[in-house]
Amino acid sequence: DARAAAIAAEYPLSSYGTPTLVFSALVGDANFACPALQMDAWLSRRTRTFAYEFNDDAAPWRYAPIEPPVATHLSELPYLFDLPDAPIQVPFSLDQEALAASMRVAWANFAATGDPSSAALPWPSFAGAHVMSLVPSQPQVETDFASRHHCSFWIAR
User: Fold this and answer.
1) What's the rounded Cα separation, in Å, for the pair 31 and 8?
2) Among 24, 27, 16, 34, residue whose Cα is nearest residue 154
3) Whole-angstrom distance, CA of residue 30 vs CA of residue 49
4) Is there a contact between 15 and 91 (Cβ–Cβ < 8 Å)?
């Protein structure tokens, strides 16, 4: 009961609108965002580390509709790879096409050089806070990842 009350206080319904969005946020934060941030912190002590968060809640579905529409684990894959056998083939918007092009260049640069940066998209190393937010049409660096995802709440537990 105490744990449920603490989670409810950390994720008030008034901040999200629906119970489904609250649940989606807390599961994403607890199981993906904050563990990834912790891994980035650990790894960055030993080598240059580049962090990202895929942030296109309108990403086209490829395998099954997601309700409510939110960016989920693996929803960035169509931006990086052609998926001609996927059962749902919704086209990208022009902004999503621009994001996909930026992402493909970043992934290719990282594979070739160990650094995803390009002239059009400088990508700083993690260094404790820098996370690239992959949003249409132009990705941007954010430094509030930990607070937006309630990581002090989840990492302390």
Assistant:
1) 17
2) 34
3) 21
4) no
